[in-house]
Amino acid sequence: AQKITQTQPGMFVQEKEAVTLDCTYDTSDPSYGLFWYKQPSSGEMIFLIYQGSYDQQNATEGRYSLNFQKARKSANLVISASQLGDSAMYFCAMREGPSGGYNKLIFGAGTRLAVHP
Amino acid sequence: GAVVSQHPSRVICKSGTSVKIECRSLDFQATTMFWYRQFPKQSLMLMATSNEGSKATYEQGVEKDKFLINHASLTLSTLTVTSAHPEDSSFYICSARGGGPGSYNEQFFGPGTRLTVL
């Protein structure tokens, strides 16, 4: 069964520093996708970054980068130069591969990040 | 990115009434829409997947007669919580996906609807 694990219920970081949010996954599908979303207190889900299982390079989007270690089945999110507005809940998610019809997103439990001034 | 709207953003109703939540894709055709439920301080749990013009596929443990999903057009899906009870109080979020070859990697979320059942 496919599973996403986020072991850090809460993290804090000083403004302007970098922070890594952990995510590990488990799947038997060779083709899958990994996502990170940010959910501020307003509740909206904001897409941050995507990594495909066959992508050779780690994904980057501005201050966000995904440290993809396929053999270890980890897809950690790195936020550089943290800002106060980065304080939010962060979810790691995985899209099912061929066995699931490429449909569902399975979410981890989330990590609440607090950025301190 | 594409825009998905939800209406209403917040609803309070009495126990026993039915509530309809709309999810619209504003600038693209959504062949597949998803409905999630999120309890406070918890993760998103997929309730059902709906494809335009066909019956929704419900996740295990989700009562299809309780949570009626209609995906009548490529831009609109509705979730109706029938005979709502206080335990149905939750944050309901929809997402939508287009139908192109790259669409599997794109799922656009609505802003969510907070349902409170008194």
Would you give an account of this structure?
- The complex is a heterodimer of chains A (117) and B (118).
- Chain A contains no helices and twelve strands.
- Chain A is an all-beta fold and 117 residues long.
- In chain A, strands 2, 5, 6, 10, 11 and 12 form a six-stranded mixed β-sheet that branches.
- Chain A is globular.
- The mean pLDDT of chain A is 92.
- Chain B has 118 residues and is mostly beta strands.
- Chain B is 0% helix and 51% strand.
- Chain B is built from no helices and eleven strands.
- Chain B has strands spanning 4-7, 10-13, 19-25, 32-38, 44-51, 57-58, 67-73, 76-81, 90-97, 108-109, 113-117.
- In chain B, strands 2, 4, 5, 6, 9, 10 and 11 form a seven-stranded mixed β-sheet that branches. A four-stranded antiparallel β-sheet of chain B has the order 1-3-8-7, with no helix packed on it.
- The model of chain B has no long low-confidence stretch (mean pLDDT 90).
- The chains are: A mainly beta (117), B mainly beta (118).
Q: What's this model, at a glance?
A:
By secondary structure, chain A is mostly beta strands. Chain A has strands at 3-5, 10-14, 19-21, 24-26, 33-39, 46-52, 60-61, 64-69, 74-79, 88-95, 105-107, 111-116. The mean pLDDT of chain A is 92.
Annotate the secondary structure layout:
The complex is a heterodimer of chains A (117) and B (118).
Chain A: E1 3-5, E2 10-14, E3 19-21, E4 24-26, E5 33-39, E6 46-52, E7 60-61, E8 64-69, E9 74-79, E10 88-95, E11 105-107, E12 111-116
Parallel strand pairs in A: 2-12
Antiparallel strand pairs in A: 1-4, 3-9, 5-6, 5-10, 7-8, 8-9, 10-11, 10-12
Chain B: E1 4-7, E2 10-13, E3 19-25, E4 32-38, E5 44-51, E6 57-58, E7 67-73, E8 76-81, E9 90-97, E10 108-109, E11 113-117
Parallel strand pairs in B: 2-11
Antiparallel strand pairs in B: 1-3, 3-8, 4-5, 4-9, 5-6, 7-8, 9-10, 9-11
